[in-house]
Amino acid sequence: MTREAHTRRILLLIPLALVAWGCSSKMPVIRKQAVDFKSTALFKLPCDENVPPGEYEMEVNRCNSTHMARMVERFMLIQEADESRSLPGDTIDEVRAKGFTIYSDPEKKTRRANTRVLYGNEALSAAGMGVSPPPLQKPDEIKAYADFMAQHYAEEYLERDMTVVADRFCLNNRDTLEFGEDRVFAILWRGGRVFKRIIKGGPVDNPKHERAFLLCPTSFITDTLTGTVSNTIKTVTPVPR
């Protein structure tokens, strides 16, 4: 074997050894982070104007976030109807006074983002009270059912601030972490009074560990077979957690 061929063989074996070492030690090869953010822009956290340069990005994210504790607190102040206590339930105006509105302008011409308006059975379903219509044959029965459904109106407010971080390990493991807030605030009115209010979802902290035959990134394989040792070492350098 010539000296040149021997050198090429060594250069090929070194990257392959790095692959085996990375897999056996479960060293992360690639990390991906995704953010799913949706908000009504109600109850926004205040922004600090005196932010150090290194913390600017963190402060921007904070300004876009929702003061969730305050939103939940204000939502729970909405009064539901309670016949046993002779409480009629809040009107739409009383709900607006507590900070919940589907409009982003005082003139009520612009719909607020991430809100939904529902009527009839869809409104009931938003509060977990969907019903199947009874068998209706007579015109008066149909009218009575239609009049009953027409009394129901609902609004939903979506607040989602989720981050998904995935560490993929060469050939054998993948760790995924989902964390954040994922809530839907639903308010149901019957005859113009709050009949029910409900919060669906809540805080999320969902780590997962998967074992599977996960191929390395294409760039890693290419660098291993055709690139230099320095390129390969750079590829497998673990991403700081």
Percent range of helical residues: 25-40%
Broad structural category: alpha+beta
Arithmetic mean pLDDT: 77
Order of helices and strands: HEHHHEHHEEEHH
Task: Tell me the span between the first and last alpha carbons.
Answer: 45 Å
Number of strands: 5
Number of domains: 1
Tell me the number of helical segments per DSSP (H or I, 4 or more residues long).
8
Q: Characterize the biggest β-sheet.
A: 5 strands, antiparallel
- Unreliable spans are 13-28, 55-60, 219-241
User: How would you describe the shape?
Assistant: elongated
Whole-angstrom Rg = 28 Å
Describe this protein's structure.
With 241 residues, the protein is of the alpha+beta class. It has one domain (15-47, 60-236). It has 8 helices and 5 strands; from the N terminus they run H-E-H-H-H-E-H-H-E-E-E-H-H. The protein has helices at residues 3-24, 56-64, 68-76, 92-97, 120-126, 139-150, 218-226, 229-236, and strands at residues 28-38, 115-119, 152-169, 173-190, 193-211. Strands 1, 2, 3, 4 and 5 form a 5-stranded antiparallel β-sheet that branches. Strand 3 (152-169) and strand 4 (173-190) form a beta hairpin. Helix 1 runs parallel beside helix 8 (229-236) and helix 7 packs antiparallel against helix 8. The longest helix is centred in the N-terminal third of the chain and has 22 residues, at 3-24. It is elongated and about 100 Å long. The two termini are 45 Å apart. The model is unreliable at 13-28, 55-60 and 219-241 (pLDDT under 50).
